[in-house]
Amino acid sequence: MMDAGPRHAYPRAVNTTHEPAGAGRADGMDVLVADDEKTIQITLRDALEEAGHRVVVAPDGLAARAALEERAFDVVVTDLKMPGMPGLEVLRLVKSKCPDTEVIVMTGFGTVETAVDAMKLGAYEYLLKPFPHETVVLLLRRIAEQRRLVQENRALREELGRSTQLEGILGQSRAMREVFQTIRLVAPGEARVLITGESGTGKELVARAIHHLSPRRAAPLVAISCASVPETLLEDTLFGHERGAFTDAKDKRVGKFEHANGGTVFLDDIDDMPLATQVKLLRVLQEGEVERIGSAAPVHVDVRVLAATKVDLEDAVNEGRFRRDLFYRLNVVPVRLPPLRDREDDIKLLAQHFIESFGRGRPYRIEPDVMDAMMRYTWPGNVRELEHAVERAIAMSGGNEALRKEHLVGTKPLPERRALPDRVTTLADAVADAERAAIRAALEHTRGRKAEAAAVLGISRKNLWEKMKHLGIEAGEE
Fold this sequence. Notes:
CATH class of the largest domain: Alpha Beta
Oligomer: single chain
Strand order of the largest sheet: 1-3-2-4-5-6
Largest sheet: 6 strands, mixed
Mean pLDDT: 84
Structural class: alpha/beta
Strand content: 5-15%
Shape: elongated
């Protein structure tokens, strides 16, 4: 059949005008049938519509090209030899415009060479005429099923991604999913958040996630640990000073709150803030103003304050070490990060993440018996300790891709989460026992190096020394 019209004009594709039986079914697809045989056009169209698909018919290659220029199809069924444009050219056009569209090639003059060419170009199937129309119906059913599985897998991966990580925080346990939900709910607002959790649980990551998901994300997030700055310098660091405010104040200094104007201030270890500084912080929260040391002129600041603590602030309030009014100002939305020993479902996920981070593409692995020991271990240093353990295990592996137990959880008997107490003790004794076990485990991991053990535990070296003395742990004990 020759094209009687002008060579530059495309013959129009023929669209069905009646509603086919089964139209609207969930598995129905948009199908283009390109063939110059009238019998194929009619009978194949009827069979596909009966199966619930929506069909457009093109009487030759140019009409097929016109249809493809106008819209996308899920499947193209094309004859190999057609006037205007052969089937292989139609196949090339489809794959260049829409690679996800499947193409079924049919021909009455098949050879091995043409079949190979079609498959190389990406054809889904190659059919020799004559063939029963049910063959095409079955192929489309298979394509629809494959597409459904791909979409389900994509949705599952997206859902898994949402449930296992949020702004760099990993976790698939129920406790962490609840943390993720709270972060998503509180981030868009302005409410202050108090993040609680043991050292090494990732409190700063939570603060960064809240900031990055908030309307303030384009402005700075300024983080400061109240425990790492000497008491005499903390006020100056937070609020700044004027030139000449004290002996060494040769220039004006802008504090952290002014640096964060328009953004977020994260106060880590808020429990270590001196009472005098707490008073000034309370004014910032109440009035939205800071006063530099040596100045009586307040400076307005627009900041959102997030705080974190590794201790129970209510206990600190009851003991007189923390202002009650400041506690209520900070504790608008509490977020509690669970210790790693209560996140057993996350240990394998986190370990694999750290292997990928430190492994530089090598397929390091943790054998089942080693992973079992890791699942039983209490991880007193929490996620930070697990991270350091994986990094150390890779460094000490000597090229062996199977990471060893002694590098991950040590060699001596260690405290395990499933061990039941032999007796009922007071809460104070239970806390002391837990701290004693955690310190000994940290010393075991670091082979007695106290500075490293303090880092694993998330406390200062001075604090570690005091606790060892209080708990009766000898200085040389490992």
